[in-house]
Automatic annotation (TrEMBL):
Residue ranges annotated for the Ketoreductase domain, each copy included: 18-189
Organism: Vitis rotundifolia
Name of this chain's protein: Ketoreductase domain-containing protein
Keywords per UniProt: NADP, Oxidoreductase
Protein's UniProt keywords contain Oxidoreductase: yes
UniProt similarity note: Belongs to the short-chain dehydrogenases/reductases (SDR) family. SDR65C subfamily.
GO molecular function annotation: oxidoreductase activity
Length: 249
């Protein structure tokens, strides 16, 4: 197994011998988290809805010597979540050290324009999915003797970004779940933390960043760039650090 290829390579940190489930690992933040955990020696399972993309990622990871497996799973579907956790339990012998709840979706509209279907999709994908996966993972995390849950929340769960109220509500709920689980499951040696990124250039928000630049026009490019540099990790590769730091403290 390859080790120390990540940004913490050479630091002496190792996750060798640990197991991790990272949801939504084929793109963006999830992809970077899989790479970092596997680079530090963890055995990782991930999932997404697109089998072809999973196969492509697995080829890339195996070429790097990483120990990664993956399943097709729609995280918004209860039965598929149950099947995912059965698989994880079977490949990791009933023990899971790290659960990274990364799957999330967003589409921004003024609040009055959201439909009932929009509400349901965002709530189910972002909140119900993470909540249920924690319930399913609890026995496995407890059995590991040193469990850790990391939620991928958002700055939108703390302050208003103007639109995207449903998304914001799911991320605020995630922040509270983080605290509840930390208190409730500390007795089981399970830690619970969340990471709340600002804009990261991934497939989820590329169109938002592009439209901001288009609206403001080229003459404001210098201003927006300096603003984004101040407040934005423009690459998802900057953000796995936060997740991995949690695994070491
Ligand atoms: N990018 C940002 O600026 C930003 C900022 C704050 C927080 N976040 C949060 O970070 C997390 C990851 O976002 P990202 O920007 O990396 O998104 P992304 O680039 O769209 O990647 C999302 C990943 O999750 C998978 N996925 C999405 N819906 C899924 C579902 N229902 N079931 C299974 N897999 C699913 C995607 O694969 P498939 O689509 O093929 O299934 C993909 O692998 C989200 O929770 C998001 O809210 C992002």
């Amino acid at each position: 197994m390859a080790e120390s290829n990540g940004s913490f390579g050479g630091s002496g940190w190792s996750l060798r011998g640990t197991t991790a489930l990272v949801t939504g690992g084929t793109r963006g933040i999830g992809y970077a988290v899989v790479e970092e955990l596997a680079g530090l020696g963890a055995t990782v399972h991930t999932c997404s809805r697109n089998e072809a993309e999973i196969e492509k990622c697995l080829r890339e990871w195996h070429a790097k010597g990483f120990s990664v497996t993956a399943s097709v799973c729609d995280g918004s579907d209860r039965a598929q979540r149950e099947k995912l956790m059965e698989k994880v339990s079977s490949i990791f012998n009933g023990k899971l050290n790290i659960l990274v709840n990364n799957v999330g979706t967003s589409f921004r509209k003024p609040t009055v324009d959201y439909s009932a279907a929009d509400y349901s999709t965002i709530m189910t994908t972002n909140l119900e999915s993470a909540y249920h996966l924690c319930q399913l993972a609890h026995p496995l995390l407890k059995a590991s003797g040193a469990g850790s849950i990391v939620f991928v929340s958002s700055v939108a769960g703390v302050v208003s970004l103007g639109t995207g109220s449903i998304y914001a509500a799911t991320k605020a709920a995630i922040n509270q779940l983080t605290k509840n689980f930390a208190c409730e499951w500390a007795k089981d040696n399970i830690r619970s933390n969340s990471v709340a990124p600002w804009y990261i250039k991934t497939s989820l928000v590329e169109h938002v960043i592009s439209s901001i630049l288009l609206i403001l026009g080229m003459k404001h490019l210098f201003f927006i760039n300096s603003m984004l540099c101040k407040h934005t990790s423009f690459s998802h590769h900057d953000h796995y650090n936060s997740v991995v730091l949690i695994e070491h403290h």
